[in-house]
């Protein structure tokens, strides 16, 4: 099943002399359950692409269809709801709210959506993330690896169509990086969670099902590797 379809996506920042074409007519599709790595030099347009897939920014032209919904045809309110329910975003620097506990950070998307947490499901997730004894801690009381596990919990708690990660291991040492990648792979394989990860780390890219290389805002290569 096709979960994501990108059609002729372009993004230009600024206008006139200072305009920058960050994405230039990019099209591809992603199947449910795929693990896609996006690689490419700094400034090639990877983050721009990820933000457009996540409904965080608006394209200059082209479409993003998630489960057949043309997300940029939605008004702002509906787009915000779409983001909260269907997109799980994971960042390099975790982006946790420092004044909220681990549990509060993880369940924030449910709270914002007026949804009750399912206790059994939540406990299962906490166990998977190995955060049982950290639920009442604040983010700054946790190691980097633990903080990233909290942010993965927050990303997956509303059972999103797609998880998007921008350099999820960029701020972690190699042991914690392996742990985070193993966790993402496990979520991908066990729950068929569709996963798109930007990475500079070749060891991570080689664990994906498919590698898309971006250069100068275009797809330079798109290879299925397993
Ligand atoms: P990458 O993630 O591959 O490093 P980006 O998507 O961040 O690339 O950037 C692609 C291009 O767009 C770069 O030339 C960058 O300078 C430019 N760019 C990114 N964000 C903005 C912005 N908000 N305003 C202006 N230019 C931007
Ligand atoms: P990890 O368990 O990911 O290898 P560390 O070795 O950095 O993490 O930390 C060991 C333990 O110490 C962790 O369980 C973590 O909760 C705790 N810890 C790490 N940093 C802090 C901190 N700044 N304040 C309180 N506890 C911390």
UniProtKB/TrEMBL annotation:
Residues 4-224 form the ABC transporter domain. SUPFAM superfamilies: P-loop containing nucleoside triphosphate hydrolases. It comes from the Bacteria. The keyword Transport applies. Coiled coil: none annotated. One of its GO terms (cellular component) is membrane protein complex. GO terms for molecular function: ATP binding; ATP hydrolysis activity; transmembrane transporter activity. Keywords: ATP-binding, Nucleotide-binding, Transport. Belongs to the ABC transporter superfamily. This is Peptide ABC transporter ATP-binding protein. The lineage of its organism: Bacteria, Bacillati, Bacillota, Bacilli, Bacillales.
């Amino acid at each position: 099943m096709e979960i994501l379809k990108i059609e002729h996506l372009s993004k230009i920042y600024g206008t006139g002399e200072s305009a920058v074409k960050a994405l230039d007519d990019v099209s591809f599709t992603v199947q449910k359950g795929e693990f896609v790595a996006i690689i490419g030099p700094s400034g090639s347009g990877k983050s721009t692409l990820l933000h457009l897939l996540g409904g965080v920014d608006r394209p200059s032209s082209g479409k993003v269809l998630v489960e057949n919904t043309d997300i940029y045809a939605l008004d702002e309110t509906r787009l915000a709801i779409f983001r909260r329910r269907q997109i799980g975003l994971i960042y390099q620097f975790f982006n946790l709210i420092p004044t909220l506990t681990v549990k509060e950070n993880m369940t924030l998307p449910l709270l914002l959506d007026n949804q009750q947490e399912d206790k059994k499901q939540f406990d299962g997730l906490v166990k998977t993330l190995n955060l049982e004894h950290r639920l009442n801690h604040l983010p700054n009381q946790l190691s980097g690896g633990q903080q990233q596990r909290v942010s993965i919990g927050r990303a997956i708690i509303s059972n999103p169509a797609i998880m998007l990660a921008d350099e999820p291991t960029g701020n972690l040492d190699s042991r914690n990086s392996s742990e985070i990648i193993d966790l993402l792979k496990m979520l991908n394989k066990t729950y068929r969670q569709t996963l798109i990860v930007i990475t500079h780390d070749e060891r991570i890219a080689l664990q994906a099902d498919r590698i898309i290389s971006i250069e100068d805002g275009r797809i330079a290569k798109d290879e299925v590797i397993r």
